[in-house]
Design brief:
binds 1-deoxynojirimycin; single chain; six-stranded mixed β-sheet; 27 strands; about 750 residues; five-stranded parallel β-sheet; 21 helices
């Protein structure tokens, strides 16, 4: 009785406080609306257009600079924001011009590409995704936001949530990989990390989800190329991560460079207005990508700059990044009636609301705190976290005969390869404010770990991308003298990222020849790979005793790799993008369709099947794959019921036993397959994962829960629903698992 009363009282209290929070939000929104509407009333057309223009400072150039005179633009009220400007003094200086020298004193918004950390650089996003650690990903953005705001910034051009299935595309490094479900969770975690609970706090930044939409599917993997796909693929695979970021409260969205089915995103009204605002309820602002309004001319949908501006603004594009089209042509467009004043007012309102939410009208210098700049950047705690997070992102791809961890008995280790001591290649692309000189190389990490205990030899061997064999002799000599060899191979940082597509995704230059010679020395050897995309490394997989995928680990890269090499950290990461055997298999991804003629491995002589005559269909390493120093054994899956009605849930559990010699973390993955759908369904779809710690010798029961909505998909009429019928449910250590049971969803 008493318990019931307490319960009722608690429910009442909770609903009262929820109602209070809701009321507070409404009042705050009303206050904001009034403030912004009053301000718009006072603004001239030129001042409004000024708010809709964003210019680069020219500090970090991420495209052709169109606006060398940005200070004058600010002074004349022609800029609403500046990007690529940071540090308190610089930002304050520019903000002062806006606040003190313009008629209405409207503060600027300051944006920057904070992609995997600001000053403390974390692993590249594709590597972070391999950790499957949403809390760590969120925390890394929290730290990035703290550091960025300590240097004057309040807006970041992140997260990049483009799903990518083609490793030729250089920008796969910036995203979460090929999976929509995981990518959506990561997108939301990043937004939460950046924005926190209160955008007006001095240590939170506004996120900008990019690149809207489907930028990750350029034909042939060539950056900026055409995107063309079915409506179903767009809805099913590409859109959900943007939606997840919007649902998590992202304050802004960036339109993408590409077209989709003939319409460039930057002038796509269906995309920017009907879908984004109409269906998804997005209430922030949309910024173009760098000069993407101008590019509407090259795309061939606008005859001249004025028409480009007209198309973009009428599609719902609020802010022109660097293109000067709005600045130069918008007034004329309004005066000639091609763009309505209402459209301009709408865009300006969204931009001013963003500034209001950031607290810039209360204090334009909110993010300009000299003290914070001194104390909140690259703190020892940030370094410690960067090291831990980097080690969590390193994937053990091969480990024959337990080559790793390095035996404690060795006396001499040889560290060889063009990436072994290459400071400038530890951070990875898009680390603009990161200081490469301050990062730890692999050689440094190994030296500090082994100091006084193990002799360390070093030889570069060759450059990353050259044909010279000059250093081979010295490298082989070092290998022969050592008891263990660490061979650091891969791409240079600038081989991935924007405008860095490759047709050949093997290890560049003469590095494989170096590897062959080192392997022939016959020493236990671990290859450490530095790269921002899946590479074609089939030969390495045959010949290297051990392979560690280290990606670009950031500021603490070398220490983190050393932690793994010497067994202080047991690797647990799993790749989130399929590694093909050859570039000819691309695009290759786990959630493919069965086709009408699936290949049957037990009948390889069967010619008329969906297969290659010169390669297996299977990848080198499947999505979700990654080894540990220990081994995990999965038991059969138990379901709490074998049939379930719509609206109900089903629980699946599996026992995982650590059968090896080390304690370790395992990322258990759950996949489903709708056996008979109204439209064809993928052979597997990730619908859950659990990252668990299991001590050696122990068994853990891992449980998942699925709702019918987790099984839903877009039907022929594009309605989103779950089919009745049989589903296969898989739980295993990667997407190739065949550990499965069936269940049935009732009519
Ligand atoms: C172009 C890139 O596509 C985008 O991701 C970036 O945010 C802008 N340049 C600004 O640097």
């Amino acid at each position: 009785m008493l318990r019931n009363k307490i319960l009722v009282a608690m429910i009442l209290l909770l609903s009262c406080s929820m109602a209070f929070a809701q009321e507070k939000k409404t009042t705050e929104n009303e206050k904001m609306e009034k403030f912004v509407n009053d301000l718009i009333q006072k603004m001239t057309l030129e001042e409004k257009i000024g708010q809709m223009s964003l210019f680069t400072s020219g500090w970090t150039i991420t495209g052709p600079v169109m606006s060398k005179d940005y200070r004058n633009y600010i002074r004349k009220g022609k800029a609403g924001g500046i990007f690529n400007a940071y540090t308190v003094d610089y930002v304050k200086d520019l903000q002062k011009i806006a606040v003190e020298e313009t008629r209405l004193h409207i503060p600027l918004i300051f944006g920057y590409d904070v992609i995997h950390g600001h000053r403390t650089i974390f692993p590249v996003p594709l590597a972070q995704a391999s950790s499957w650690d949403l809390d760590a990903i969120e925390k890394s953005e929290r730290i990035a936001a703290t550091e960025a705001t300590a240097e004057g910034l309040n807006w970041v051009f992140a997260p990049m949530v483009d799903i990518a299935r083609d490793p030729r595309w250089g920008r796969v490094m910036e995203g979460a990989g090929e999976d929509t479900w995981l990518g959506s969770q990561i997108a939301a975690a990043r937004v939460k990390g950046f924005q926190g609970d209160d955008l007006s706090a001095a240590n939170t930044v506004m996120a900008c989800v990019k690149h809207f939409a489907a930028y990750g599917a350029p034909q042939a993997g060539r950056d900026y190329n055409t995107v063309d796909m079915s409506e179903r693929s767009l809805y099913e695979w590409y859109l959900p991560p943007y939606k997840a970021a919007v649902d998590a409260g992202a304050g802004s969205v960036m339109s993408s460079f590409n077209e989709i089915a003939g319409v460039p995103s930057t002038s796509n009204r269906w995309l920017l207005t009907d879908l984004l605002r109409g269906n998804w309820g997005f209430d922030g602002f949309v910024v173009s990508d760098y000069t993407s309004v101008n590019e509407l001319i090259k795309h061939g949908v606008a005859a001249d700059s004025a028409s480009a501006g007209q198309l973009a603004v009428n599609a719902g594009l609020d802010m022109d990044m660097e293109g000067s089209i709005y600045a130069d042509y918008m007034k004329g467009l309004v005066e000639s009636g091609k763009v309505s004043v209402e459209t301009i007012n709408e865009s300006v309102k969204r931009i001013l609301e963003a500034k209001y939410k950031l607290g810039l009208f209360d204090d334009p210098y909110r993010y300009c705190n000299k003290e914070r700049e001194k104390t909140e950047i690259m703190t020892p705690e940030d370094h410690a976290f960067a090291r831990k997070f980097a080690s969590e992102s390193i994937v053990l791809l091969k480990n024959s005969g337990q080559t790793l961890p390095v035996s404690k008995k060795i006396n001499t280790i040889a560290v060889i390869g063009p990436l072994a001591d290459s400071k400038e290649n530890m951070l990875g692309g898009w680390s603009g404010a990161g200081e490469w000189k301050k990062c730890v190389t692999l050689l440094e990490g190994i030296k500090s770990k082994t100091e006084g205990k193990i002799r360390v030899l070093y030889a570069k061997g060759c450059d990353i991308d050259s044909k010279s064999t000059k250093g081979f002799g010295e490298a082989v000599k070092a290998a022969r003298q050592a008891d263990f060899v660490v061979l650091a191979l891969g791409e240079s940082s600038d081989m991935t990222g924007e405008a860095s597509s490759r047709t050949d995704i093997s290890i560049p230059g003469n590095q494989m020849e170096l590897a062959r010679q080192i392997f022939s020395a016959g020493k236990p050897t671990a290859v450490v790979l530095f790269n921002g995309r899946p590479l074609t490394i089939e030969e390495l997989d045959h010949s290297a005793p051990a392979i560690l995928e280290a990606w670009y680990g950031g500021t603490e890269a070398g220490n983190a790799i050393a932690d793994i090499l010497f067994g202080e950290v047991n690797p647990s990461a799993k790749i989130t993008m399929t590694f093909p055997r050859s570039v000819g298999q691309v695009p290759i991804f786990y959630n493919s369709k069965n086709t009408g003629r699936p290949f049957d491995a037990s009948k390889p002589e069967d010619k008329f099947k969906s297969r290659y005559i010169d390669s297996p269909n299977t990848p080198l390493y499947p999505f979700g794959y990654g080894l540990s120093y220990t081994t995990f054994k999965y038991s059969g899956i138990k379901l709490d019921k074998s049939t379930f009605a719509k609206g109900d849930k089903i629980k699946a559990s599996v026992n995982i036993t650590n059968t090896g010699n080390y304690d370790g973390d395992e990322i258990a993955q759950l996949y489903v397959h709708d056996v008979v759908g109204e439209v064809t369904r993928p052979v597997k779809e990730l619908k859950g994962f659990r990252k668990v710690h299991i001590a050696k010798g122990e068994t853990l029961t891992v449980t998942f829960e699925l709702k019918d909505n987790d099984l839903a998909y877009y039907h022929q009429d594009m309605s989103y629903a779950c089919d009745p019928g049989v589903f296969e449910l898989f739980i295993g250590s990667d997407s190739s698992t065949d550990n499965k049971v069936d269940f049935t969803v009732l009519e």
